[in-house]
Specification:
two-stranded antiparallel sheet, alpha/beta, 26% strand, globular
Length: 180
Protein backbone atom coordinates (compact mmCIF):
# COMPACT_ATOMS: atom_id res chain seq x y z
CA UNK A 1 0.00 0.00 0.00
CA UNK A 2 1.23 3.50 -0.76
CA UNK A 3 0.46 6.42 1.53
CA UNK A 4 -0.28 9.79 -0.12
CA UNK A 5 1.66 12.95 0.63
CA UNK A 6 -0.05 16.21 -0.27
CA UNK A 7 1.98 19.14 -1.59
CA UNK A 8 0.36 22.57 -1.71
CA UNK A 9 0.72 24.48 -4.96
CA UNK A 10 1.07 28.26 -4.97
CA UNK A 11 -2.21 28.59 -6.93
CA UNK A 12 -5.10 28.20 -4.42
CA UNK A 13 -7.50 27.35 -7.27
CA UNK A 14 -5.64 24.08 -7.92
CA UNK A 15 -5.94 20.90 -5.92
CA UNK A 16 -2.77 19.72 -4.14
CA UNK A 17 -0.72 17.11 -5.93
CA UNK A 18 -0.42 13.69 -4.37
CA UNK A 19 2.75 11.62 -4.18
CA UNK A 20 3.18 8.19 -2.63
CA UNK A 21 5.87 6.71 -0.45
CA UNK A 22 6.83 3.22 0.65
CA UNK A 23 8.42 1.99 3.85
CA UNK A 24 12.17 1.65 3.35
CA UNK A 25 12.35 4.28 0.59
CA UNK A 26 13.67 7.67 1.70
CA UNK A 27 12.16 10.75 0.09
CA UNK A 28 12.56 14.50 0.51
CA UNK A 29 10.38 17.53 0.86
CA UNK A 30 12.63 20.52 0.32
CA UNK A 31 15.63 20.14 2.63
CA UNK A 32 13.84 17.60 4.83
CA UNK A 33 14.78 13.95 4.30
CA UNK A 34 12.10 11.49 5.42
CA UNK A 35 12.78 7.79 5.99
CA UNK A 36 9.64 5.71 6.67
CA UNK A 37 10.22 2.31 8.27
CA UNK A 38 7.91 -0.63 8.89
CA UNK A 39 6.53 -1.07 12.41
CA UNK A 40 4.59 -3.99 13.93
CA UNK A 41 1.01 -2.80 14.45
CA UNK A 42 -2.40 -4.11 13.45
CA UNK A 43 -2.98 -1.65 10.63
CA UNK A 44 -2.42 -1.59 6.89
CA UNK A 45 1.29 -0.89 6.23
CA UNK A 46 2.03 1.06 9.43
CA UNK A 47 5.25 3.06 9.52
CA UNK A 48 7.45 5.06 11.84
CA UNK A 49 9.60 7.91 10.56
CA UNK A 50 13.08 9.35 10.78
CA UNK A 51 13.29 12.99 9.72
CA UNK A 52 16.69 14.51 8.93
CA UNK A 53 17.47 18.17 8.28
CA UNK A 54 20.52 20.34 8.92
CA UNK A 55 22.32 17.40 10.53
CA UNK A 56 19.55 16.72 13.07
CA UNK A 57 17.79 13.31 13.17
CA UNK A 58 14.32 12.94 14.71
CA UNK A 59 12.51 9.60 15.00
CA UNK A 60 8.87 8.82 15.70
CA UNK A 61 8.08 5.26 16.79
CA UNK A 62 4.59 4.78 18.18
CA UNK A 63 1.95 2.08 17.72
CA UNK A 64 4.48 -0.69 18.19
CA UNK A 65 3.62 -4.14 19.41
CA UNK A 66 7.30 -4.76 20.19
CA UNK A 67 10.75 -3.42 19.22
CA UNK A 68 11.98 -5.46 16.23
CA UNK A 69 15.58 -5.09 15.01
CA UNK A 70 14.62 -2.82 12.09
CA UNK A 71 13.00 -0.30 14.47
CA UNK A 72 15.94 -0.52 16.87
CA UNK A 73 18.30 0.26 13.98
CA UNK A 74 16.25 3.29 12.90
CA UNK A 75 16.39 4.76 16.41
CA UNK A 76 20.21 4.81 16.48
CA UNK A 77 22.11 8.10 16.19
CA UNK A 78 18.98 10.19 16.68
CA UNK A 79 18.95 13.60 18.34
CA UNK A 80 15.30 13.26 19.35
CA UNK A 81 13.19 10.13 19.73
CA UNK A 82 9.44 10.04 20.24
CA UNK A 83 8.73 6.58 21.64
CA UNK A 84 5.50 4.92 22.65
CA UNK A 85 5.03 4.15 26.35
CA UNK A 86 1.38 3.21 26.13
CA UNK A 87 0.37 1.30 29.22
CA UNK A 88 1.25 -0.01 32.64
CA UNK A 89 0.81 -3.78 32.57
CA UNK A 90 -1.07 -3.99 35.88
CA UNK A 91 -3.34 -1.07 35.04
CA UNK A 92 -4.16 -2.64 31.68
CA UNK A 93 -4.90 -6.07 33.20
CA UNK A 94 -7.11 -4.52 35.92
CA UNK A 95 -8.53 -1.78 33.71
CA UNK A 96 -11.87 -1.20 31.98
CA UNK A 97 -11.10 -2.66 28.53
CA UNK A 98 -12.80 -5.89 27.45
CA UNK A 99 -10.51 -8.93 27.46
CA UNK A 100 -10.32 -8.96 23.64
CA UNK A 101 -8.98 -5.38 23.59
CA UNK A 102 -6.51 -6.14 26.36
CA UNK A 103 -5.21 -9.10 24.33
CA UNK A 104 -4.83 -6.87 21.26
CA UNK A 105 -2.94 -4.18 23.20
CA UNK A 106 -0.63 -6.81 24.70
CA UNK A 107 0.02 -8.57 21.39
CA UNK A 108 3.04 -8.23 19.09
CA UNK A 109 0.97 -5.90 16.90
CA UNK A 110 -0.47 -3.88 19.79
CA UNK A 111 1.26 -1.23 21.91
CA UNK A 112 4.49 -0.88 23.90
CA UNK A 113 4.11 -1.01 27.65
CA UNK A 114 6.13 1.17 29.99
CA UNK A 115 8.21 -1.94 30.75
CA UNK A 116 8.90 -2.64 27.06
CA UNK A 117 9.82 0.99 26.35
CA UNK A 118 12.16 1.08 29.36
CA UNK A 119 13.71 -2.28 28.37
CA UNK A 120 14.57 -0.77 24.97
CA UNK A 121 16.02 2.33 26.64
CA UNK A 122 18.12 0.28 29.04
CA UNK A 123 19.26 -2.58 26.81
CA UNK A 124 19.35 -1.29 23.22
CA UNK A 125 19.13 2.51 23.07
CA UNK A 126 22.50 4.03 22.16
CA UNK A 127 22.11 7.07 24.44
CA UNK A 128 22.68 9.66 21.71
CA UNK A 129 19.35 11.51 21.80
CA UNK A 130 19.36 14.72 23.76
CA UNK A 131 15.56 14.66 23.79
CA UNK A 132 13.31 11.66 24.48
CA UNK A 133 9.55 12.03 24.28
CA UNK A 134 7.31 9.35 25.72
CA UNK A 135 4.12 9.36 23.69
CA UNK A 136 0.79 7.61 23.15
CA UNK A 137 0.21 7.18 26.88
CA UNK A 138 -3.14 5.54 27.53
CA UNK A 139 -5.52 7.68 29.57
CA UNK A 140 -7.19 4.53 30.97
CA UNK A 141 -4.22 2.24 31.47
CA UNK A 142 -1.26 4.43 32.36
CA UNK A 143 -0.17 7.33 34.51
CA UNK A 144 2.45 9.82 33.32
CA UNK A 145 4.37 9.31 36.57
CA UNK A 146 4.63 5.55 35.94
CA UNK A 147 5.88 6.04 32.37
CA UNK A 148 8.41 8.66 33.50
CA UNK A 149 9.69 6.55 36.40
CA UNK A 150 10.21 3.47 34.20
CA UNK A 151 12.10 5.53 31.60
CA UNK A 152 14.21 7.37 34.19
CA UNK A 153 15.28 4.07 35.77
CA UNK A 154 16.33 2.76 32.37
CA UNK A 155 18.26 5.92 31.48
CA UNK A 156 20.42 5.81 34.62
CA UNK A 157 22.80 3.54 32.73
CA UNK A 158 22.93 5.89 29.69
CA UNK A 159 24.82 9.02 30.75
CA UNK A 160 24.90 11.63 28.00
CA UNK A 161 27.04 14.77 28.11
CA UNK A 162 24.10 16.75 26.73
CA UNK A 163 21.61 14.91 28.96
CA UNK A 164 18.69 12.75 27.97
CA UNK A 165 15.94 15.31 28.45
CA UNK A 166 12.77 13.35 29.04
CA UNK A 167 9.34 14.71 28.09
CA UNK A 168 5.89 13.20 28.29
CA UNK A 169 3.49 13.99 25.47
CA UNK A 170 -0.02 14.73 26.65
CA UNK A 171 -3.23 14.09 24.77
CA UNK A 172 -4.60 17.42 25.99
CA UNK A 173 -1.91 19.95 25.23
CA UNK A 174 1.04 20.37 22.87
CA UNK A 175 4.63 20.08 24.00
CA UNK A 176 6.73 23.19 24.09
CA UNK A 177 9.01 23.51 21.06
CA UNK A 178 12.29 21.58 21.20
CA UNK A 179 15.28 23.50 19.87
CA UNK A 180 18.66 22.20 18.77
Amino acid sequence: MQIPICHRKPDPARLPSVSYFRAGETFSIGDLSISPFTIPHDAADPVGFVFTAEGVRLAIATDLGYMPPNVQAQLRRCDLIMLESNHDLEMLRDGPYPWSVKQRVLSRVGHLSNDAASAFLEEVYDGTATHLILAHLSESNNLPELARLAAERALVSKPNLLANRLYLASQDEPLDPVCF
